[in-house]
Design goal:
The chain is 22% helix and 27% strand. The chain contains 11 helices and 41 strands. Strand 8 and strand 9 form a beta hairpin. Helix 1 packs across helix 5. The radius of gyration is 32 Å and the shape is elongated. It binds uridine-diphosphate-N-acetylglucosamine (UD1) and calcium ion.
Length: 492
């Protein structure tokens, strides 16, 4: 079928080692208001898989090695320009002050560029396009010697997209927008993906002729197709075999739909590379995450930002990792960690909160209801239960007893705590920083430690216990406690 045309052509040409065609100019249209998003930020800055919509698109464009990249900006232009300066510093931006349609946007971009060659035009809101599809499209356009080509797709539900009206010769007669389409045209399921290739001279000659006599009173870029047809410079439809790549985002339902497609794409890549994902529908992994083979990810987990997960690690269930490094054979269960390094063989969770600057060395442990920030837990050391560790350096093979608090804040400033190797901190110790506990030292359970404890010493910082014999029998005479005490032989 024509649905697999790109694929077949591509394979045969790859075998022959044909040099890939290059385009002179890529124009990305990103000036629109994005009204349907109902958002206070720009549409193209909404995120999928940890990258903005436009960043996803430009990631697919980059390997094409186009000579020039122009992005048309308008709505929220400062935000968009600022973002582009980070993700695509070489991109040129053109400002479309009056958002009079995709045709107006393309006119501006084209006018600001001198030079011939092939122009690739893309909508900024199609983040699922891949380099491979774009390159195949470019190569087909070149090999067919087209003056204009439109990437088209067959959609199960074409509502909202421009429909492709083909002429008797198979070329495109015109593209009709949903809002201007007759009922019979709405039945057509071949749509305009918003991806076009034009020979720049041909495009420049007709683009000034488009008019806004349509239902939206806009200049439609799509109208150049019928203008070209009139002068027998036919535009050819090149049908993509994977419509999911060409979906555009106009509202939040489409944002979620595209995010789910991207999620599946990313998860599939990891699974094929040897990662076990128990429930791919509830596992969200950002595009920038690196995961080695033999990692197992349990359901309802998300791994985002620049995280790196090493071989043999176990993540989840219900775990969120943001910009974290997890060492080989470590496990992170039912936990939330951000900007933390979890060493090889370390155990985290369940219910652990690791904040920025946490470093767990190899074989260490951060257990249930433990919060750690800006601290290092040395090799083999354990913070097993119910503790807060802030601004601390803990040495090797030390044990921090349950419910220990590193009291790092005096109300105005944060202070450091240092714990040596082979230290045993008794349960419920308050370590009032700044304070240092020497190698091999102990603290007594329930201590408030606000002075250094030298190596090998035990620090005891609590009131000595006093037992007042017979107190209950006297002060709670007829109570159940008094009765129990009497039964046990207690005397007044
Ligand atoms: C457009 C196409 C439609 C196609 C669909 C594919 C037109 C007239 N229609 O419709 O045939 O099926 O894309 O996704 O082109 N933009 C500007 N300046 C403007 C208006 C829009 O830069 O004045 C930008 C937008 O930011 C967006 C892109 O152009 O990135 C497409 O605009 P949008 O309003 O989303 O067009 P669609 O209605 O989706
Ligand atoms: Ca759109």
């Amino acid at each position: 079928s024509s649905g697999s045309r790109i694929d077949t052509w591509w394979r045969s040409h790859q075998v022959k080692g044909v040099v890939m065609s290059k385009v002179e100019l890529v124009i990305v249209l990103a000036a629109g208001e994005g009204t349907r998003m109902k958002s206070k930020s720009a549409k193209v800055l909404h995120e999928i898989a940890g990258r903005t919509i436009i960043e996803n698109l430009l990631a697919a464009v980059k390997p094409l090695e186009a000579k020039n990249l122009t992005v048309v900006v308008g709505s929220h232009k400062d935000e968009v320009i600022e973002h582009l300066s980070k993700i695509a510093p070489k991109a040129k931006t053109v400002f479309q002050e009056k958002r009079n349609g995709t045709g107006g946007a393309a006119q501006l971009a084209l006018a600001s560029h001198k030079g011939d060659g092939t122009v690739l035009i893309l909508a900024g809101d199609t983040p699922l396009l891949t380099t491979q599809t774009l390159q195949e499209f470019i190569d087909l356009h070149a090999s067919q010697k087209n003056k204009a080509s439109v990437l088209t797709a067959l959609l199960p539900d074409p509502t909202g997209y421009g429909r492709i009206i083909r002429g008797d010769n198979g070329a495109i007669l015109k593209i009709v927008e949903e809002k201007d389409a007759a009922d019979s045209e709405k039945d057509i399921d071949e749509i305009n993906t918003g991806v076009y290739l034009f020979e720049s001279k041909v495009l420049s000659a007709v683009i000034s002729k488009i008019q806004s006599n349509n239902s939206q009173k806009e200049l439609y870029l799509t109208d150049v197709i019928s203008l070209l047809n009139d002068q027998k410079d036919f535009a050819h439809a090149i049908l993509s075999n994977d419509y999911t790549e060409t979906l555009g985002i106009n509202d939040r339902t489409q944002l979620a739909e595209c995010a789910a497609i991207m999620r599946d794409r990313i998860n599939n890549q990891h699974m094929l590379a040897g990662v076990s994902i128990i429930d791919p529908t509830t596992t969200w992994i950002d595009a920038g995450v690196k995961i080695e083979a033999d990692v197992v990810i349990y359901p309802s987990s998300s791994i985002s930002g620049e995280s790196v997960i090493k071989s043999g690690a176990i993540i989840g269930p219900r775990t969120t990792l943001v910009d974290c490094e997890v060492g080989s054979d470590a496990s992170v269960i039912e936990s939330f960690a951000t900007k933390s390094k979890i060493g090889a063989g370390a155990k985290v969770g369940p219910y652990t909160y690791l904040r920025k600057g946490t470093v767990l060395d190899s074989d260490s442990k951060a257990g249930a209801f433990v919060e750690i920030k800006n601290s290092t837990v040395g090799k083999g050391s354990k913070v097993a239960h119910l503790s807060y560790v802030g601004d601390a350096q803990i040495g090797q093979e030390s044990n921090i007893g349950a419910a220990t608090v590193f009291v790092n804040y005096d109300g105005e400033n944060k202070h450091q705590t240092k714990i040596g190797d082979q230290v045993r901190i008794g349960s419920d110790t308050m370590l009032v920083a700044p304070v240092t506990i020497g190698d091999g030292a102990y603290t007594a359970a329930g201590s408030v430690i606000n002075e250094d404890v030298p190596a090998g010493a035990i620090g005891i910082g609590r009131a000595r216990q006093v037992n007042i014999l017979g107190w209950v029998l006297k002060k709670r005479k007829d109570s159940k406690s008094a009765a129990a005490a009497k039964k046990a032989g207690a005397k007044e």
